[in-house]
Design a protein that fits this description.
The longest helix is centred in the first third of the chain and has 29 residues. This protein is an alpha+beta fold. It has 3 domains: 200 residues, Rossmann fold (3-Layer(aba) Sandwich); 155 residues, Hypothetical Protein Pfu-838710-001 (Beta Barrel); 67 residues, no CATH class. Helix 1 packs across helix 7. Strand 4, helix 6 and strand 5 form a beta-alpha-beta unit. 33% of the residues lie in helices and 32% in strands. The chain has a 9-stranded antiparallel β-sheet. It contains 11 helices and 17 strands.
């Protein structure tokens, strides 16, 4: 049974949240059971824990209690994993026990270790299989430094850089410490973090680019593979960013992800992912972009000759009467020859074809989605759709009128510029 405990750490606003979401998805696609161990200090601070106006002796006692909670939490996840008995399990820890060393004096740290009955070697080298340190954006990517995604943090850029250096120093000596800085763009930084974890668990690393192929036919897959159902919904975003939520899983067991794709310039963008709760997913759905249909697909992931493949089947799109299938493979060189699995027959390559992107497929499906809007308004009597503009509302209204004449359409302008446009649909019973 393979269990790996991996720490993601770093200074404030280093990209841990996005990296953990991407790593979890990657490993789950390869058949791993992934446990996300939450950051204990943030949980305690949000619950009333504070280090303000306390004496050095009290700091030692409080930090000892904090680390005891961290240890118990991590050990509880290991016990939970043993119940499932999965042969391949990974624990992704949002920070680890050595992080505390960055926040106390050497004398305090020595006392805390004594209180715990532990040594640095036990906490650093024996407890964790690898440590991935993501350098704060305040050091090399200052324009992206923000604390908006963690209300428990208050550090200035200068303080963030100082904490980052101290946190790195705390983990120096671990046999598998990887420091990932900001010399590349954010997506490359996250990809490097995913690759570092893949090396630890000995699975194929993500590559720089991907190629897409339309599949003509498919035979049974003869190698180990994992299949999940994905539902992706695009949201109204008045800042001009591409925003979406995704539900991913199978048999009533799902994980939820929120993604913002932010344009940085012509041909350049960065994606920011975070895991969300089912309740947060439900709230986000209230901002669903009614000009886009829901992307529903079944994804089958497998490794063939050392390469990682994803086969997406789209039940709402058909090719010659069969559900459309698109095969994706990660590559370092877009022009390199790729040995295709013999059980997959390729019709043609569609790399770079915009109309095969999820967003364009969602936009193309908006007419078909009018049937869904019609069904919902028939069931509820009234339905409000959130849209980017009045022009989008006009397009939806046109599609609805093509579907049925028993729905009235009215719109409401935003109360202030930059706010979404609301389209209201009402069922007219007498017109049925």
């Amino acid at each position: 049974m393979t269990h790996r405990r991996i720490v993601l750490t770093g200074g404030p606003c280093g990209g841990k949240t996005t990296a953990m979401a991407r790593i979890a998805e990657r490993l789950e696609n390869l058949g791993f059971r992934v446990f996300m161990v939450p950051e204990t200090p943030t949980m305690l601070f949000q619950g009333g824990f504070s280090l303000h106006d306390v004496t050095p002796a009290q700091v030692v006692e409080l930090e000892t209690a904090l680390l005891t909670t961290v240890m118990n939490t991590e050990d509880s996840f290991r016990r939970i994993a043993s119940v499932y008995g999965e042969p391949k399990t990974v624990f992704l820890c949002d920070r680890g026990m050595m992080d505390t060393k960055a926040y106390v004096t050497p004398g305090m740290w020595a006392t805390i270790l004594s209180n715990l009955g532990q040594t640095e070697v036990q906490l650093r080298d024996q407890r964790y299989d690898a440590v991935i340190h993501l350098v704060t954006a305040a050091d090399g990517a200052e324009e992206f430094y923000t604390l908006a995604n963690n209300t428990a943090r208050t550090e200035t850029p200068e303080q963030a850089r100082d904490l980052d250096r101290k946190t790195q120093a705390a983990w120096v000596g671990h046999p598998h410490l990887r420091v990932i800085d900001n010399r590349s763009d954010f997506d490359d930084k996250v990809r490097d973090a995913v690759a570092a974890v893949c090396r630890v668990v000995e699975v194929p690393e993500p590559q720089e680019d991907e190629r897409k192929f339309l599949v003509a036919s498919l035979e049974p897959i003869p190698v180990p593979h994992v299949t999940v159902d994905i539902e992706q919904v695009y949201l109204v975003n008045c800042d001009g960013d591409e925003e979406r939520v995704r539900r991913r899983g199978r048999e009533n067991s799902f994980v939820y992800t929120h993604t913002i794709k932010r344009r940085k310039g012509p041909g350049s963008a960065a994606e920011f992912d975070r895991m969300i709760t089912p309740a947060e997913h439900l709230m986000a759905m209230e901002r669903r972009d009614a000009t886009c249909g829901v992307i529903r697909k079944t994804r089958t992931c497998f490794v063939w000759e050392g390469r990682y493949f994803e086969l997406d089947t789209y039940p709402d799109w058909t090719v010659r009467g069969e559900p459309m299938r698109v095969l994706e493979i990660e590559v370092n060189d877009l022009g390199a020859d790729i040995p295709m699995p013999p059980f997959v027959k390729i019709e043609r390559e569609v790399t770079g074809h915009a109309h095969f992107s999820n967003l364009e497929l969602a936009r193309a499906w908006q007419g078909g989605d009018a049937h869904e809007h019609y069904k919902r308004v028939r069931e509820t009597g009234e339905l409000s759709l959130v849209l980017r503009s009045e022009a989008d509302a006009d397009r939806i209204a046109d599609h609805l009128h093509e579907v049925s004449s028993v729905v009235t359409v009215s719109g409401r302008n935003p109360d202030r510029p930059g706010q979404p446009y609301v389209l209201t649909l009402r069922h007219v019973p007498d017109a049925d």
